[in-house]
UniProtKB/TrEMBL annotation:
Top-rank lineage group of the source organism: Bacteria
GO biological-process terms attached to the record: DNA repair
Site (described: Interaction with DNA substrate): H251
Keywords: Hydrolase, Magnesium, Manganese, Metal-binding
Protein name: Exodeoxyribonuclease III
Length: 260
DNA sequence: ATGGTTGCAAAGCAA
């Protein structure tokens, strides 16, 4: 089973690219972020035509997450628990059959948090605290669990081409990185790092200043696997070539292959 | 380099 995650930066602007990716790679499950669409505006039928079931948590103008799956999406839940007042569309969960059992999959879009020193950064840290609680609760089910999405966290210096350029950015603050480590230390495996150690492994390149041409990237799109899921991990990858295509997202797909 | 680029949606915000 192949599970991919991709911040597509607008599903309407990226529909043809997304459909081409699905036709080429045929992932079983896809976690999308930044769909930038309300549910009614999501091109559900275009994905259904390729054989996918669709679940969305949309929002007008920005944010928004979705799950696509060839097999049915069961027990879909929308929203990150812990703050009834939080209206941002950043979290959707579903269970999908994997062989003779089920895997729980989350598509998440963690707040950017810039600029630091503002309520936006406080919101990011509060959101991560809520994520920690939800992840711990999900782990108690002892079902294979995959947290996939745009975490907006650069975990280590080697996850950036120019780490010094990010020291004042919310993505690389000590508090952001500490919250990431606490999450990982619940027992998750960083799937990309398990398969691809070392520098030069990036998932995002800014649109500005020719960042991609200079390979001035960062690794912020992650797939965290519970121990039950990590036991099934066969391989993972990053599809950088999508960043070189016409009208690309600034993020590229990250994927894992699990034994079923 | 106090700019630079893109999406949404129709001016300015978010990233």
């Amino acid at each position: 089973m192949i599970i991919a995650t991709w911040n597509i930066n607008g599903v309407k602007a990226r529909l043809e690219s997304a459909l081409a990716y699905l036709r080429q790679h045929s992932p079983d499950v896809v976690c999308l972020q930044e769909i930038k669409s309300v549910d009614e505006g999501f091109p559900t039928s275009a994905f259904q035509d390729l054989g996918y079931n669709v679940a969305t948590l949309g929002q007008k103008g920005f944010n928004g997450v979705a799950l696509l799956s060839k097999s049915p999406l069961e027990d879909v839940t929308r929203g990150l628990p812990g703050d009834e007042l939080d209206q941002h569309a950043r979290w959707i969960e579903a269970s999908v059959a994997l062989g003779d059992r089920m895997v729980r999959i989350v598509s998440l879009y963690l707040p950017n948090g810039n600029p630091i020193g503002t309520e936006k950064f406080a919101y990011k840290l509060a959101w991560m605290k809520r994520m920690q609680a939800r992840a711990a609760a999900l782990l108690e089910d002892e079902m294979p669990l995959v947290l996939a999405g745009d975490f907006n966290v650069i975990p280590e210096s080697e996850d950036a081409k120019r780490p010094q350029a990010w020291v004042n950015d919310a993505l690389f603050q000590p508090e952001s990185r500490a919250a990431w480590r606490s999450l990982v230390n619940l027992g998750f495996t960083d799937a990309t790092r398990a398969c691809h150690p070392g520098p030069g492994v990036y998932t995002f390149w800014d649109y500005q200043a020719g960042a991609f041409q200079k390979d001035d990237g960062i690794r912020i799109d992650h797939m965290l696997l519970s121990s039950q899921a990590a036991d099934l991990l066969r391989s993972s990858g990053i599809d950088r070539d999508t960043r070189a295509q016409e009208k690309p997202s600034d993020h590229v797909p990250v994927w894992i292959k699990l034994d079923s």
